Records
---
Amino acid sequence: MSDASRSDLPASETFAGKFAQHIRVVRALIRRDIRSRYARTSGGFLWAIGEPALMIMLLAFVFSFLLKTPPIGETFIEFKMTGFLAYFLFRQPSNTGAGGINYNLGLMSFPAVTPYDAVVARFYIEFLTVLASTLAINMLVYGYYGRLPEFRVEYLMLCIALTFGLVSGVSFVNAVLFWRYPSYERIYSAATRPLLILSGVLYLPDQRLPSVALDVLWWNPLIHTVAIFRQGYYPTYNPDFISYEYLIFWIILLNAVGLSLITYHRYSVLER
């Protein structure tokens, strides 16, 4: 198509026009999601912070009886917080995003709303909510102890970016599979429950596991993101099993497959 032909296209048909429409639709879906989740109940957002906080305190309390000192750092609460928040940053947004098509199925009759918009809006608002709860929990924990760790911000930001890539890919793939095969949602939920144990949330994999077990768990992408997150809190913690190339491979693969599935099934979703 020539430049002259492109200039004759309606604004809504150009890339800039479609992108602007996507942003408007996602913003509208996010506002709708916020109203449905938080506006009706005063404690909705507080529970988003309270759920991981309660889990961290429970784990810290239990392990304080099992071990005299944490594997690294000074307190069990801090150690469990770094593991659980990194895991929670993946689990919650990916589960919420995966339900994006089913949750917004009634809105698919509107021409402006696409399955892609529905999934992006769902995992985006949940990711921001978990980030907000992560900040709030850090403020509570370190406010209680009256000190701050020597944060390595570059590792925290890197973990957030890589986890966001994994969340988007898993959300796109599972959103189509959850819609297409309803029984798959239950299978996926059962299959991913052991990830809390298998992702190094409760322990340091390179210190607590034999090399054979670590070689097996290395294939789990979350064991890498959890370790990167902990690097942001502990200056002396530098595990050598982390592979950024492996994480990037999964991010590219999952997003490519997920976007392909959404594109392929787009009109099938709209027809239902």
---
Amino acid sequence: MDVLKQVMAQPIDPDYAIVAARGQTPSRGRWMLVVTLIALGALLAVAATQNSRTAPVQASERTELIERVRAAETRQDELQAQAAALDTEIRTVRESQLSRTEADRQLRAELAALEIDAAAVAVKGPGVLVVVDDAVGSEASGSEAKG
């Protein structure tokens, strides 16, 4: 309560009142403020100028990068098509060359099994069900799957 009474009775800080009575103005602080604002304005002007100068360069680099990505995607598609054609050719040659004798047929069966083991061919089947239940407060067990 005393602070509130003091603020109401003496609204001006005593130090400020002494400086005001001498007739001095806090000019040093104003000059520092003006210099700081001018420096900040100059900094922002330089940044804006550099940004406007580099905008066309950045746009052209972005366009060039997009073109390079599209060219790489096209090349990738071509290589995938070539790999598929070569795979088909290999299978055709293998079928024609490994079907003459019984040993060839056994070798072809062994190759088919090895392709599956090496993940060289697509396989079909029921697949694998993976249940991750190690979260805190998890209720599922390793043999159950919630769905």
---
Amino acid sequence: MRPEPTVRLWLAGAALALSAGLLVAVACASGGGTAAAPAPAATPVPTAAATPRPPVPAARVPDQPYVGTPRPAASSPPYLEIMRLRSRGQTNEQLLAKVRSESVVYTLSTYDIQKLRASGVSEDVIEAMLASGRQALTPTPTPAAP
């Protein structure tokens, strides 16, 4: 079956347009042809806002002034005094009396307690040191009034 004449005409026109497009594309790709070369694109001018600045090296940043309250000078922890007294020959009873008479808050770490034990301080003195200067956690019960 043969196509109708209008369809043949349409097919011929499409083939002609396709071949003409291919010829133009080949001519432009090879650099030949009569088509004018496109104008070069305008080079964008960098602006101050578009160009990011590199970060400032830390060596160029000046030291900032300290505005807070200065820390007090570090003094020796109070448990060292108990260790010194024990090494000078004071008894555990004398150390216990000293700890109970003063209301010093001894903040002892596990390492500090080990050092106290190694220096010969008794468990009673260490327990008194841990309780020294602190309020009782549980209040003493009072008898109910009849």
---
Amino acid sequence: MIGATHSSRTFSSSPRHGNARPSRCGCQRGAAAVEMALIMPLFFLLVMGMIEFGMIGFHKLTLTQAARTGVRAASMGKPVSQIVATTQQSVASSMTIPSANIIPEYSVGGGGWMPLTDGPPVNGQVMNGAPPDALVRVRIAAWKHPLITGSFFAWLPGVTSNALPLNSGMTMRRE
């Protein structure tokens, strides 16, 4: 049955196997390219989303570690300038935290949070002004995570100028 037709498809028999198979007609050409054109935008969206959210997670964890390092210094009574410097030094070299974004605070007896300032020198050492057993916390507020995908994820809540503000904080008891 060489050249037999069936429902507008041409079949030819293979001399080697003897079975009938559809021949390559014009209706099948370019199907793979069309399928790829439909799938590739979704694939790139998925990959770029994984990269972006991975970087957001990395920066959030780094800020949390920086806040933990800063609050440890505050709980040991270090002066405010040293708390800020310790917090800034504990982040990855690719990140910088402006000192204005680092907020050391303390709370006594469940009251509100008050700004942490340096107290009077004790034995010639400057200590912070939080009394012993007070809660101290270091907050990192509104650190700007630059979106590596540019405006691609600008629809996320809080994104301004292709940057997502991240916050972190940690609380300990003053020793």
